Amino acid sequence: MAQTQSQFATQLKKYYTFYTGGFVTFVILVGILEFAGVPNKILGYLFLAATILLYAGIGFMSKTADVSEYYVAGRRVPALFNGMATGADWMSAASFIGMAGTLYHTGYDGLAFIMGWTGGYCLVALFLAPYLRKFGQFTIPDFLGARYGGNIPRLIGVLAAILCSFTYVIAQIYGVGLITSRFTGLEFTMGVFVGLAGILVCSFLGGMKAVTWTQVAQYIILIVAYMIPVVWLSVKHTGNPIPQIAYGQQLQKVSEREKVLNDKSSPDGAREESVRQIFRDRAAAADANLKGLETGGAAFLAAEKEKLMAKVTELRTTGADAKAIETAEKAVKEYPPTPAAAKKAWTAAKAGSTAKAAPIKPHAEPFPAKDDKARDVAKRNFLALILCLMVGTAALPHILMRFYTTPSVREARVSVFWSLFFIFLLYFTAPALAVLVKYEVYANLVGTSFAQLPGWVANWAAVDKTLMAISDINKDGLVQLAEITIGGDLVVLATPEIAGLPYVISGLVAAGGLAAALSTADGLLLTIANALSHDVYYKIIDPNAPTTRRLVVSKALLLVVAALAAYVTSLKPGDILFLVGAAFSLAASAFFPALVCGVFWKRANKLGAILGMSAGLFFCAYYMYLTYPFFGVNAKLWWDINPIAAGIFGIPAGFIGIIVGTLITPAPSKEVQELVDHVRYPNLEGDINTAGA
């Protein structure tokens, strides 16, 4: 058997070496087509079509009707390839698209994501991956059902898996829609559903087997796509092809430029200050409107609208120019119709203008703030986010499921090392990319005439005004930094265009972003569908269901969940990074206490698991509902903790629930305690058969 596994690994290395060579050849051919004058849109279609067809081909060749192959890829994925697949599964649209963008906007504070996500793999290796592999079933709710007994812990596990995976998959489909709409010209909502088709062809036929081998291919594409533009930028600005080393000197230049733009006595700083003053005036006007609304209600709203209508009449009577009349008419048309709508619009306007009016935040300064209290709040949120991301990493069902696919417990441990290595390659590069792009914007966009704006500005503004917008606020004809709106989700995808690289590199980066989003979406959708089909339908509703019916149910649920996720994504419920962070907080709160106590505390029992998972999930979700703007409650923050780090309340609630519930009820049965011993101690390398547990 060992020889067979060795031959299988050797064969895989040969296949993926040929695949990598073929992909590089394809990129070169597209580059030749660009040089020959083929339109950019055609090249974009080529890249997207070729990559999706490739993944579909792997999915078709991996089709299976075997339950073990469908759920855990036959448990024969070598550690190296499982590491690559886990890396692709892990490096979602948030890592590929959102990470560098967050670092671009937040500087030092954005390092919380890198520290939390990479540190989490240490928890995976130490506390969960080898033990879950030794348990040896199909899903995380499987473990909860067997370890704690009965269907209630299993069902709570299913609910939590669906909630955090669904939140996470929305972010991936948003990234797919963003890329598809930019590089095909489709409207965003249509781009979402077109991209969804690419997600489904990978996982529909072959389940985990197809997803695994597709994800290995996707990792190769995404890491090549991520590295080429940043290496190119590094050489362009510093002459050094190693951006991780070179970006230090660019960071120094960025810091110097920030000082100039914040200095009101310099010409550049004076122009920036003129724009900031306009935004301060706008923020004050929005604040005055909010106060008037608070005291005058609907009457104030009607009076203000009357003033705007009178202004339109005055402009028409005095023969003002058409543009001024059009602007005034637009203000009347867009005026909020109700007090609730007015409050929402003016609150958002005040927040946006206040942010634009603030001086530039130093990229390299830890926790820059106007006073000690604000600095303490920033530190608190930094540490809370790191904790939530670390613990969430060690509790995400779609990641933990990957370690069920290795041939042995030892291979599961080794695959965690490879996962961390492959993830490190991208995470070590993201800070360099953020600084290099920021320097490009500071040096080559700020100060440019509006009549000479680069083409990428208009290209991305056409996709989404919240991602790219530049307005001449102070009417001086020159671009100031405060006049630029760049969404974090744009930074990586637009990097080749910002740097003036050939369009083939833009297509390559789009293919990489698509690979990152598709690979994670595949794993997440499979997690949701498997939780419903295996843990609910097979384990609870119809334990005697034949294999064929189980797989049909799984595939049908996959379609339903995917369509629902695409619909929710089209509503744009939040930016990519928040949605992903929220999924980590939910997973950390619901799963981590129950999983860790299930492995390391034999006394932990059914009531403890029920109370712990329920309390953790409730407190985390409730805090997000209260404080995340999308839900419209806008309650006061608890200890100034941002909603993305809601797990800081859910995690301790989960542990307290398990401890209290366990101590007030009897210990679990002898069979369950023997299961814990078997999972914990390496007296046997084989898997325990818990199918009947």
Structure notes:
Strands 1-2 form a two-stranded antiparallel ribbon. The chain is built from 27 helices and two strands. The protein is globular. The protein has 693 residues and is an all-alpha fold. Helix 6 runs parallel beside helix 15 and helix 10 runs antiparallel to helix 21. The protein has a domain at 267-373. It has helices spanning 2-35, 40-61, 67-72, 79-90, 93-106, 111-135, 140-148, 151-184, 188-203, 207-238, 243-262, 267-317, 322-333, 339-357, 372-393, 397-400, 409-427, 430-444, 455-461, 491-498, 503-541, 547-570, 576-590, 592-600, 606-627, 647-663, 670-680, and strands at 468-470, 484-486.
Question: How much is the radius of gyration in Å?
Answer: 27 Å
Strand content: under 5%
Largest sheet: 2 strands, antiparallel
Order of helices and strands: HHHHHHHHHHHHHHHHHHHEEHHHHHHHH
Task: Give the helix proportion (percent range).
Answer: over 70%
The order of strands across the largest sheet is 1-2
Shape: globular
Number of helices: 27
Task: Note the gap between the termini.
Answer: 28 Å
Number of strands: 2
Mean pLDDT: 81
- Unreliable parts: 684-693
The structure class reads: mainly alpha
